[in-house]
């Protein structure tokens, strides 16, 4: 007579399946073993009430055993799940079938479980005990078995060294070695040499055989990172990957870049002190409103310096706040006004007759000169200047300088100023045409201007 009636099993399982109570709570309330309750639930879900009924002892055919093992292997089922699916009450026997099939194939699997009489086995062993242990008394098969064991013990460390794992002291490395030699030697013997439990080996095998689902994405991330010479962080890399139709979360890209040891350039900012008030100072018309609704509505400018072997190079650019594009720039070895004058001529050449932008700068001496104000008045351009000692009023231009120096100047070495000047020219072309901006929807400044301009 079974310990639990069908009525009680059904009541307990249905109470759990109602979703109102947890597994342990139901088991405790009805004084039922948790493991048994879990088995009943799986059997009920797979076979209904039939799975809860008492089942007489049954013998299973070889074809049935092979079908169970096939489903376990193909679907990744646990022995408990397979037992519920095929209505095998003592599901532990599936593990025994699996070991039999691995060690002896279909032939051993067809023999069924071994039942030995201890007394008869002991007597049989005494009768068959050889009189001598000499090689003359041993069978040919015994000698071959011993030879195979010796070969296996010799092959194991060789395979470990060939896989680059030394003495294969790590569990995952041991499992890899066993997996490589499994086609040649019996699994049970290999596990004994490796000192691995069978369950541990199968777990490691599953881990080793799992494909990296992010392999293609990792390759694409590295390609984007290398193409931009390490200037893109995970946000810009995510934007590029999304433009290709891959909907990937930015946190995933951040984690994968960490695994690949890819880190964008560290921005290094240099403090620039205010040098006093000379000449005319314009009002702060821009007032930190860095958004523009059309091209050539708001411009910003400034001057920055670079050093190579004790020599200096100065850069004076003009940026359009509509898309962050550098519309004009000039470089010189000395920070004279003619550098700013040449830059202005190039920038004015981009203007249409209807364009009357605001040109914002700091209170540098170049922008307080009468010639500077005269050039702006001739083009009907409104001058604007940052407040005294306040670099945040010209944050857009300062941000560009920080990006230029972090992504190009600080991570490279230059032989002379000519090499630096050529590199800055190439970087500004890259910045305008290729380097994407997240605030522009993942487009470069030029692409954004082209796409937003009327046809």
From TrEMBL:
NCBIfam families: transpos_IS3. Residues 291-453 form the Integrase catalytic domain. This is IS3 family transposase. Residues 111-139 are annotated as: Disordered. It holds the Pfam family HTH_21. Gene3D superfamilies: Ribonuclease H-like superfamily/Ribonuclease H, Winged helix-like DNA-binding domain superfamily/Winged helix DNA-binding domain. Involved in the transposition of the insertion sequence. InterPro entries: Homeodomain-like_sf, HTH-like_dom, InsJ-like_HTH, Integrase_cat-core, RNaseH-like_sf, RNaseH_sf, Transpos_IS3, Transposase_IS3/IS150/IS904. It comes from Neobacillus paridis. SUPFAM superfamilies: Homeodomain-like, Ribonuclease H-like, TrpR-like. Residues 120-129 have a biased composition (Polar residues). It comes from the Bacteria. The lineage of its organism: Bacteria, Bacillati, Bacillota, Bacilli, Bacillales.
């Amino acid at each position: 007579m079974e310990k639990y009636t069908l009525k009680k099993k059904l009541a307990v399982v249905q109470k759990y399946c109602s979703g109102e109570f947890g597994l342990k709570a139901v088991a405790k309330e009805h004084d039922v073993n948790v493991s048994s309750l879990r088995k009943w639930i799986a059997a009920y879900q797979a076979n209904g009430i039939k799975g809860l009924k008492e089942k007489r002892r049954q013998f299973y055919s070889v074809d049935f055993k092979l079908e169970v093992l096939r489903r376990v292997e193909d679907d990744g089922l646990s022995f408990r799940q397979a037992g519920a699916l095929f209505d095998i009450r003592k599901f532990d026997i599936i593990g025994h079938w699996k070991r039999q099939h691995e060690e002896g194939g279909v032939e051993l699997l067809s023999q069924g479980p071994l039942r030995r009489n201890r007394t008869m086995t002991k007597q049989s062993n005494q009768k068959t005990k050889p009189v001598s242990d000499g090689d003359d008394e041993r069978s040919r098969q015994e000698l071959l078995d011993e030879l195979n064991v010796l070969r296996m013990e010799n092959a194991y460390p060789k395979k470990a060294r060939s896989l680059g794992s030394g003495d294969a002291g790590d569990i995952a490395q041991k499992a890899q070695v066993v997996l490589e030699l499994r086609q040649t030697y019996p699994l049970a013997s290999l596990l004994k040499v490796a000192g691995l439990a069978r369950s541990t080996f199968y777990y490691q095998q599953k881990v080793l055989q799992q494909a990296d689902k992010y392999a293609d994405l990792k390759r694409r991330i590295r390609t984007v990172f290398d193409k931009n010479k390490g200037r893109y962080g995970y946000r810009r890399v995510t934007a590029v990957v999304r433009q290709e139709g891959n909907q990937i979360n930015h946190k995933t890209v951040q984690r994968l870049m960490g695994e690949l040891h890819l880190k964008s350039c560290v921005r290094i900012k240099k403090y620039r002190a205010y040098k006093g008030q000379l000449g005319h100072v314009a009002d702060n018309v821009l007032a930190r409103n860095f958004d523009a609704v059309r091209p050539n509505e708001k411009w910003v400018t400034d001057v920055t310096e670079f050093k190579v072997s004790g020599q200096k190079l100065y850069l004076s650019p003009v940026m359009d706040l509509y898309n962050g594009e550098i519309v004009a720039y000039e470089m010189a070895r000395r920070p004279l006004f003619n550098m700013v004058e040449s830059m202005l001529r190039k920038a004015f050449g981009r203007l249409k007759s209807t364009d009357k932008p605001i040109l914002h700068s700091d209170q540098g001496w170049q922008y307080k000169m009468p010639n500077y104000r005269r050039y702006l008045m001739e083009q009907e351009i409104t001058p604007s200047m940052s407040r005294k000692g306040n670099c945040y009023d010209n944050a857009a231009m300062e941000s560009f300088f920080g990006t230029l120096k972090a992504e190009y100047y600080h991570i490279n070495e230059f032989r002379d100023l000519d090499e630096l000047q050529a590199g800055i020219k190439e970087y500004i072309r890259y910045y305008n045409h290729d380097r994407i901006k997240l605030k522009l929807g993942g487009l470069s400044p030029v692409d954004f201007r082209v796409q937003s301009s009327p046809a």
